[in-house]
Amino acid sequence: MEGTGLEKTIGVLNEKFEGEVLHAAMLYDFPTITLKKDKIIEIIKFLKEHPDTRYHYLTTLCGIHYPELNQIAIMYQLHNMMSGERVRLKIYLPAEKPEVPTLTTVFAGANWMERETYDFFGVIFTGHPDLRRILNVEDMIMFPLRKEFPLEDQVREDKNDTMFGR
């Protein structure tokens, strides 16, 4: 199949998942596709196995909080290391209940990335084999990379702001 990485990937997706693509563009020279969330695992598996795409390496999986939209995006970056082609896939979840199936059934390496995304954004990856905090303390009650939380502890008395130019 000919065309740019974006055109080729959209063509492959439309073979089986017509209507699932919400938006596609080259952003900063990176093909980026926004999809409906319901079939994301099936779509990624399809792109991994399809002979025209073979995105067989999961480079990145992370969360992005959009408080103005009351949503959390999950961003997946896939890479075909033989051709050098890459693609970024995004889905949006409601911030009140961010839940999506685990990608560990397709990429074992998603394990750590999903735990980190849970730890910092509160995204529940259903079916994950060990979804618990990985970097923050277990009894933490917030998800610190959500933008509704302040960057610093506002009640600390032991810090000297003059050392930081404040």
What is the element layout, followed by pairings?
Layout: H1 5-16, E1 21-27, E2 30-35, H2 40-49, E3 57-66, E4 71-80, E5 85-94, E6 99-101, H3 110-121, E7 124-126
Parallel strand pairs: 2-5, 6-7
Antiparallel strand pairs: 1-2, 3-4, 4-5
Descriptive labels:
7 strands, 166 residues, 5-stranded mixed β-sheet, alpha/beta, single chain, 20% helix, Beta Polymerase, domain 2, 3 helices
Mean pLDDT: 91
What is the CATH architecture assignment?
2-Layer Sandwich
CATH class: Alpha Beta
Strand content: 25-35%
Spatial sequence of strands, sheet with the most strands: 1-2-5-4-3
Pfam families: Complex1_30kDa
Subunit structure: NDH-1 is composed of 14 different subunits. Subunits NuoB, C, D, E, F, and G constitute the peripheral sector of the complex.
Domain NADH:ubiquinone oxidoreductase 30kDa subunit: 33-154
Enzyme class: translocase
